């Protein structure tokens, strides 16, 4: 068990989210940086769907009430364990009474903590993810508060005490910092053709600034106004996380994991699934740049993520076995 001492700006229980329920108006939710949580679970030998903690912008702390192995992943929050530095991409067995603290994120937006066996919260609609907008899932359907106690599954037999990490030399793709400029790839959507060649080139050439009002529902982008050649009045229709909508302001909004399942604004494209984790770590005020991609390339990029997680699970298996 662990007890939350300080939830920071926003901490919640998340897993890989709910899929296949958009037809009844249930969004995906789940970890914004899916890859980070998958890697953390792989380091502990957890199941892919195991629930962990997502911490936004750091400032988080908890105390362990019983022995538990954790893995720290995602943003660099200068975490400490009993006052001593604990690097990200690190797995460690904690003893009762130890305190893990995260500072405010130096790079990236979201840190993740996986625990051995996953967090034991009720499964709702096939997932343990927190849907704070809908008020269900996770821990009582809400963000965590100081004093909350979370139960963790017992470590499996044959597991030894852990204290190891993933190096930037061996796993360089994990160490992108999420500040400065982030390139994300997108597949054009139906209304992309409503913009002339000049407008489409402007969209891809612009460094779009992520506005402070951005959150898990959507990222608002600031830059030049996009004006369509053809103006359409659209009925509301299904949208996915990563959908790049263009509201009347002429400035894009990228729908994220807590977004609605339908919308009526024109769509420029959809950020490919493999790049949603990059988008999740892009800091407020930093710059996004979009690159056009095709569906076949998008599928290949997702397979690369799967291969990375599988490789880490294999490479770390000897660390977990006594």
Automatic annotation (TrEMBL):
InterPro entries: CT_A_B (IPR003778), Cyclophilin-like_dom_sf (IPR029000), PxpC (IPR052708). Keywords: ATP-binding, Hydrolase, Nucleotide-binding. Residues 23-308 form the Carboxyltransferase domain. It comes from the Bacteria. GO terms for molecular function: ATP binding; hydrolase activity. Pfam families: CT_A_B (PF02626). This is Carboxyltransferase domain-containing protein. It comes from Salipiger pallidus.
């Amino acid at each position: 068990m662990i007890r939350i001492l300080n939830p920071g700006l926003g901490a919640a229980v998340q897993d890989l989210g709910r899929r296949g329920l958009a037809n009844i108006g249930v969004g995906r939710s789940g970890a914004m940086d899916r890859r980070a949580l998958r890697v953390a679970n792989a380091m502990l030998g957890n199941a892919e769907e195991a629930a962990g903690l997502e911490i936004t912008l750091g400032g988080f702390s908890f105390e362990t009430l019983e022995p538990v192995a954790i893995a720290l992943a995602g943003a660099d929050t200068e975490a400490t364990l009993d006052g001593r530095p604990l690097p990200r991409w690190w797995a460690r067995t904690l003893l009762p009474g130890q305190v893990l603290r995260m500072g405010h994120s130096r790079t990236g937006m979201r840190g993740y903590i996986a625990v051995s066996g996953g967090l034991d919260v009720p499964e709702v609609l096939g997932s343990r993810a927190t849907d704070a907008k809908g008020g269900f899932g996770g821990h009582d359907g809400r963000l965590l508060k100081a004093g909350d106690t979370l139960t963790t599954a017992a470590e499996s037999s044959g597991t030894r005490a852990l204290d190891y990490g993933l190096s930037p030399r061996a796993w360089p793709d994990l160490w992108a910092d999420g500040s400065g400029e982030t390139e994300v790839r997108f597949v054009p959507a139906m209304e992309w053709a409503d913009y002339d060649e000049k407008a489409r080139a402007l969209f891809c050439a612009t460094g779009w600034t992520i506005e402070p009002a951005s959150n898990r529902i959507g990222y608002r982008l600031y830059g030049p106004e996009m004006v369509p050649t053809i103006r359409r009045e659209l009925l509301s229709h299904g949208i996915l996380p990563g959908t790049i909508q263009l509201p009347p302001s002429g400035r894009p909004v990228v729908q994220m994991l807590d977004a609605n399942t339908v919308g009526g604004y024109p769509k420029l494209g959809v950020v490919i699934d493999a790049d949603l984790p990059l988008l999740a770590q892009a800091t407020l005020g930093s710059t996004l740049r979009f690159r056009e991609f095709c569906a076949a390339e998008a599928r290949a990029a997702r397979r690369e993520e799967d291969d990375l997680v599988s490789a880490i699970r294999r490479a770390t298996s000897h660390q977990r076995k006594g």
